[in-house]
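Quick note —
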Amino acid sequence: MRYLISVLLAFVIVGCSTSNKVALTPLELQALQTREYETTKDVAFSSVMSVFQDLGYTVESAEKETGFITAFSASDAHHDWLLTGNKYTTQTRGTAFVEQVTSNLTRVRLNFVTGTQASAWYGQSSKQDKPILDHVIYQTAFEKIESAIFVRAN
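Predicted structure written out below.
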């Protein structure tokens, strides 16, 4: 019986200590989030703005001089009245940094973060932000930016 309990306890400890979280190095993260385009900063900036809007984001701020854009998606709310009484609201925020590298080369870096806010009865609330590291999401956004640049250039 002690042997069985020891084995089960070992499985529980090992199961709790493993994590599927993938940690990217700063260079890997930058490679995921950055692309360069043969175009001017003005064309790239306008293209990123329109892609955010095409993806359903609301542009919160945009400053062409600094090249910084912030945008957010529509929020999705659901309630868990039966178990916890909490209301959960999830929203994705996106930022872009557009910089001119040379006269005809522009670098675009995107960052997407999902934020979840929980609010309970009696006014308690908490917020959790989680970076989005799915390469497909970034690849899709960069392909759309490339298409928008192509349309603006021609």
